[in-house]
Write a sequence for this structure.
C-alpha cells in the first residue's frame, strides 16, 4: 500500500511540467542573448564574465520575482518583485534588439560584405539602446501620469450637458511596486480637474484586499459632482473580484456590474452604465459581461455612456445603443514594440475611435503592469469633455 503513489503528488507533477518548460525556454532565451552579444563585445574578458553573470541572475530573478506575491514576508516579497520586474524590462529590450540585430546581420551580407567592426559595434548598440529604453521607460512609468484632454462629439447632446467632464483613470495595478503614495498622487491630480464624474475602468489591483486595502484607501478621496464609478477588469478576477467590489463600495465608489445609473445634471440627464470584464465568465458564469443587461430599463432620449474594461466590448456596446464607451486594458502597449501586437487581441490600442455610431476611448492606463517601464506609450489621466457633434 505504501508503495502506491498518491494522486496529489501526481497532480503537482503534472502542473509543474508547463512551469519547468517555461523556465527552460526562458533560460534558452537568456543564453541566446549571451551567445549572440558577449563573444563579440570589444571589452576585456572580466566584463564579458560579468555580463554572463548578469544574464544568469536575470534568468533566476524573473521567475522568483513573478512568484514574489506568494511570499508572505515583507519587505522581502516586494524586493523580489522589484528585482524580477526590472529584469523583465531589461530582458525584453535586450531580446527584441538582439533579434533585430541578427536580422540586420542576415540581410546586410546580401548587399555588402560584413566586417568585424559592424558585428562588434552593433552588439554595443544593442546594449546602449536597451539601457536607454529601460532608464527612460522607468522614469516614464514612475512619474505621475500626465493629463490628456479629449473632446467627444455626441449628436443631439442636450445644451445642459455641453462641457460635461469625465476624469478617467485605468489600469493602475496597485501591487508590489505601486503603493499608497503613487495612488495618492493620482487622486490629487484627478480632484484638481474638478470633474463632473470619475470613471475607473478596471485593473485597479494586483493582489488581495487584505494585502492592498491600505494602498487603495486614497480612492475614498476621489471627488466629483456625480461621484466615482468603477468596473472590474480581468486583474480584479485574478485578485478576488467579490472582495474587491465590496471594498470599493466601502470606499464610496459606485461599482457597476452589468448595471446603470441615471445622472441628473442641470436639468438634463445621461445614462452611465458599466459591464463586468469581457473575460469575467471564465471566473464566474453569473458575471458574464452583458451590455444589454447593463442598459435594460434605462430611459430613452439621453446620452448613454458605457464603462467597459476591454475595448473588445465595443461591438456589444454598439449593438446595445451606447454613444460612448470608455475602456483601458491595453496600456497602449506599455513599451516598444508590444503596442504593435495589441491589435491581435483588441480592436483599438489607444485614443479615440469610432465604431459605426459608437465612440470608443481607450486609455493607455494610469499605472503599469509588470516591469516599471513605459516607452512609446506614456501613462495618462484622461479628462473627457462631451461636446455637440458638428452638423
Amino acid at each position: 500500500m505504501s508503495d502506491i503513489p498518491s494522486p496529489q503528488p501526481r497532480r503537482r507533477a503534472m502542473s509543474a511540467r508547463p512551469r519547468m518548460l517555461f523556465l527552460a525556454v526562458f533560460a534558452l532565451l537568456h543564453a541566446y542573448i549571451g551567445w549572440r552579444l558577449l563573444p563579440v563585445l570589444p571589452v576585456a574578458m572580466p566584463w564579458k564574465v560579468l555580463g554572463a553573470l548578469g544574464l544568469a541572475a536575470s534568468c533566476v530573478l524573473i521567475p522568483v520575482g513573478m512568484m514574489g506575491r506568494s511570499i508572505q514576508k515583507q519587505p522581502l516579497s516586494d524586493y523580489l518583485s522589484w528585482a524580477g520586474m526590472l529584469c523583465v524590462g531589461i530582458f525584453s529590450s535586450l531580446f527584441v534588439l538582439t533579434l533585430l540585430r541578427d536580422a540586420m546581420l542576415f540581410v546586410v551580407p546580401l548587399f555588402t560584405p560584413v566586417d568585424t567592426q559592424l558585428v562588434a559595434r552593433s552588439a554595443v548598440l544593442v546594449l546602449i539602446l536597451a539601457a536607454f529604453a529601460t532608464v527612460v521607460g522607468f522614469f516614464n512609468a514612475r512619474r505621475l501620469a500626465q493629463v490628456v484632454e479629449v473632446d467627444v462629439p455626441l449628436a443631439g447632446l442636450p445644451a445642459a450637458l455641453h462641457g460635461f467632464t469625465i476624469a478617467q483613470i485605468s489600469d493602475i495595478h496597485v501591487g508590489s511596486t505601486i503603493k499608497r503614495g503613487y495612488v495618492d498622487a493620482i487622486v490629487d491630480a484627478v480632484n484638481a480637474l474638478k470633474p463632473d464624474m470619475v470613471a475607473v475602468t478596471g485593473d485597479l489591483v494586483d493582489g488581495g484586499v487584505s494585502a492592498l486595502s491600505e494602498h487603495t484607501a486614497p480612492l475614498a478621496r476621489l471627488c466629483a459632482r456625480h461621484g466615482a464609478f468603477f468596473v472590474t477588469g480581468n486583474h480584479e478576477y485574478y485578485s478576488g473580484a467579490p472582495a474587491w467590489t465590496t471594498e470599493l463600495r466601502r470606499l464610496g465608489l459606485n461599482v457597476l456590474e452589468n448595471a446603470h445609473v441615471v445622472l441628473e445634471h442641470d436639468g438634463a440627464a445621461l445614462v452611465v452604465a458599466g459591464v463586468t470584464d469581457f473575460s469575467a465568465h471564465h471566473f464566474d458564469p453569473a458575471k458574464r459581461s452583458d451590455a444589454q443587461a447593463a442598459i435594460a430599463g434605462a430611459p430613452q432620449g439621453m446620452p448613454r455612456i458605457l464603462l467597459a474594461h476591454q475595448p473588445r466590448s465595443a461591438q456589444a456596446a454598439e449593438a446595445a445603443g451606447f454613444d460612448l464607451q470608455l475602456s483601458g486594458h491595453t496600456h497602449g502597449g506599455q513599451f516598444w514594440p508590444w503596442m504593435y501586437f495589441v491589435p491581435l487581441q483588441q480592436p483599438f490600442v489607444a485614443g479615440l475611435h469610432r465604431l459605426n455610431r459608437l465612440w470608443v476611448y481607450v486609455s493607455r492606463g494610469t499605472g503599469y503592469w509588470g516591469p516599471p517601464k513605459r516607452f512609446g506609450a506614456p501613462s495618462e489621466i484622461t479628462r473627457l469633455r462631451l461636446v455637440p457633434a458638428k452638423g
Summary: The first helix runs from residue 7 to 37. The chain has two domains: 7-141, 145-388. The longest strand covers residues 146-154. The chain is about 40% helix and 15% strand.
